[in-house]
Amino acid sequence: MSSDKSQTYSISDLAREFDITPRTIRFYEEQGLLAPTRRGQVRIYSPGDRVRLKLILRGKRLGFTLEESRALFDLYDPGSGNRRQLKTMLATIASHRTNLTQQLHDIQVMMIELDESEARCNQALEEFSDTTSSTAPINNKNTMTEE
Amino acid sequence: MSSDKSQTYSISDLAREFDITPRTIRFYEEQGLLAPTRRGQVRIYSPGDRVRLKLILRGKRLGFTLEESRALFDLYDPGSGNRRQLKTMLATIASHRTNLTQQLHDIQVMMIELDESEARCNQALEEFSDTTSSTAPINNKNTMTEE
DNA sequence: TTTCAGGTTTACGTTTACGTAAAGGTAATT
DNA sequence: AATTACCTTTACGTAAACGTAAACCTGAAA
After folding, report:
1. Residues A27, A47: Cα–Cα separation, whole Å
2. Where are the alpha helices (DSSP H) in B62-82?
3. Per the CB < 8 Å rule, is B90 touching A145?
4. d(CA B109, CA B99)
5. Are the Cβ atoms of A110 and B58 closer than 8 angstroms?
């Protein structure tokens, strides 16, 4: 077997690796986000295709729509645009940065709140232990409705 | 007349403040995320309602579904759960932390990539200026991004 | 040769998060 | 009284991102 340097992937290879369905990958292609080559009818994915898929999924984690991710790909080769398009691209970049900064802040605040929620949960658990200290399956004495 | 300490908001007050439509706010209520009081048929929102709305919107910015945000609200009063529920809540918290950590990383990487894309755009613009050399409305020639 | 694990297209179904009328109530102006 | 500005409910519509089912090809293994 020739150790062909060009690594390739089947659709289910990528589906397994990224824990998505082939349907999802085909859908991304349908939306113009991927363009794998074909051997006959079968899709063959290059490492480059794999990277693009990775970028799409990262975009999704950050709440990007597929269209936004597609637009972001264009930012990787700004040779193709005229002056006005380049200005638009710069504005787009600035806008994304603003959003990401907001998200960064949101995450920090929410992390703190998760800490607090966790503390309250642990405290509630401790109070359970207190109540249950003696041998009987004593009921908890708080006024909240039980299930 | 009486300077009633309890501040209230109409639905359009909140809609304006957060730049969403009244329809959106009613939808959140329909989904059990808000429960404003009523004066007759009209919804009256308390500062607490306003905070909840804020939390919903922050959740949305981070990609939470409404159901997830609703579940997060329950984390604020862990008095109501039994032991098993508290364990579940702790697991939920841990899961959210994992996701937020991933997002944090995603954001950092994407910020860097945005920097690079911006640099490429600026470079492409400079090459335009070169081509357009003489009569152009003087461009700034420095290569650094400005603030 | 049949079976079978993968791949394909086509196409309709589903969930989430609202948008968009339609039809009407209420309170303050004009 | 009539207009205006909000508010309400009811209900059907919609876009995004796939899920799911049907019907088919296809190469390798049993």
Report:
1. 19
2. 66-74
3. no
4. 15
5. yes
Question: What one-letter code names the amino acid at A61?
Answer: R
The count of C-alpha atoms lying within 13 angstroms of the C-alpha of B71, restricted to the half-sphere facing its C-beta, is: 15
- List the single protein residue with the shortest CA to C1' distance from C9: A41
Q: Assign A130 a pLDDT band (cuts: 50, 70, 90).
A: low
B1 or A99: which carries more pLDDT confidence?
Answer: A99
B7-74 CATH fold: Multidrug-efflux Transporter Regulator; Chain: A; Domain 2 (1.10.1660)
Q: Which amino acid is at B7?
A: Q
Look-up of token digits 């999802």: A24
Using CB atoms, which residue from A58, A106, A124 is nearest to B61? A106
Task: State the smallest CA–CA distance between residue B1 and chain A in angstroms.
Answer: 38
A83 in contact with B, Cβ within 8 Å? yes
Angle (CA) A16 A21 A24, round 5°: 130
Any chain A CB within 8 A of the CB of B67? Answer: no
A1-74 CATH pick, 3.30.1360.10, 1.20.1250.20, 2.170.190.11, 1.10.1660.10: 1.10.1660.10
What percent of chain A has pLDDT above 90?
A: 71
Q: Where are the alpha helices (DSSP H) in A1-82?
A: 11-18, 22-30, 47-61, 66-74
Task: Write out pLDDT tens, residues A25-66.
Answer: 999 999 999 999 999 999 999 999 999 999 999 999 999 999
DSSP string, A122-134: HHHHHHHHHHTTS
Count CA atoms closer than 13 A to B141's CA, side-chain side. 4
Helices B47-61 and B22-30: crossing angle in degrees, nearest 10, is 90
